[in-house]
Specification:
This protein is of the alpha+beta class and 113 residues long. Helix content is 54%, strand content 13%. A three-stranded antiparallel β-sheet has the order 1-2-3, covered by helices on one side.
Length: 113
């Protein structure tokens, strides 16, 4: 991923969070297109992932997840959920056209170098 976490790292962070929360029988799988999660033999929930460059949101969510994976079990899940919603609702710091231009410039530089 753009923030240095691959699918295996993401799976381990989620498993650590679930262990800290005392959730039993968690099965988590990540790949480049989807994330699947099930607990205690219940049906799996799948989240389809979309591509995009949101490094600011990825960095903030990674920090929150890393905290939750090492935090004590007394974490206020409601407060963390509100924080996650706030991260996801924040507008992109740059407009869509700037992101397209930056990506094209990166590709052009990579092709030249």
């Amino acid at each position: 991923s753009a923030f240095g976490h691959n699918c295996t790292d993401a799976e381990q962070i989620v498993k650590d969070i679930c262990r800290n929360l005392g959730l039993p029988g968690v099965v988590v799988t990540f790949d480049l297109q989807r994330c699947s999660f099930s607990m205690a033999g219940l049906p799996s929930h799948t989240l389809n992932l979309s591509r995009g460059i949101h490094a600011d949101k990825l960095a903030a969510v990674t920090k929150l997840a890393t905290y939750l994976s090492s935090a004590p079990t007394s974490v206020n899940i409601g407060a963390c959920s509100v924080m996650l919603d706030q991260i996801l609702e924040e507008p992109d710091p740059y407009g869509k056209w700037f992101q397209i231009f930056a990506f094209q410039a990166l590709c052009m530089c990579a092709a030249i170098c």
